[in-house]
Amino acid sequence: MTTFALIGAGPGLGLATARRFGAAGHAVALLARDPQRLDDLTAELAGDGVEARGFAADVLDIESLTAALYAAGTSLGPIEILQYSPVPRADFMKSVLDTGADDLDAPLAFSVKGPVTAVNAVLPGMRELGRGTLLFVNGSSAVRPNPNVAGTSIAFAAESAYARMLHDALAPENIHAAQLIIPGAIRPDAEHSSPDVLAERLYDIHAERHGFRHYAEPLPDPRPEATP
Fold this sequence. Notes:
Elements: E1 3-7, H1 13-23, E2 27-32, H2 35-47, E3 52-56, H3 62-76, E4 79-84, H4 105-129, E5 132-139, H5 150-170, E6 175-182, H6 195-208, E7 213-215
Parallel strand pairs: 1-2, 1-4, 2-3, 4-5, 5-6, 6-7
Helix pairs in contact: 1-6, 3-4, 4-5
């Protein structure tokens, strides 16, 4: 059995993807800061017959993130699939003109140092397996900068560049790096962006192993409507 490791475990998209990969026969490692949340999610997954364990970690703490992924691979089995999808903090959402240099420290640590740390932790195991999948989940500001959320726009763009380089560099080793862009809000009633639909899309990206960037739905037209 190999392991699906989810960084940014939560009751929405995270739980849905954990269920989907668990249903495919993978053990599930849930990583998040809140131990109580992890206990609740693992109990819910156990009710679905999914072997899951929680590992407390903070993506801003390189040592805790590395240790959690090592523990996950050791206790559950080698990590074949890594999903990086933690939700950015509200204080990353300043406008571009209100954003100073110090305001970028946490967003860049969150969206660049965190993924780099996670990938470096799981890559040796994927190489031993001879296969692997790295899934990066971002909002639309990763590909269309939004001046109202400058921190995430800048950090997501950097994360995208890193993920794209991984896609190219690791393809010869049968390790597939891909990004899913979710333009709108994740809602249970959304046609293309409900947790279950997105989980199925992420599983398909893993299984089909084709292309780097994928969209949950087309980006909305940014142009204002023409006035008569």
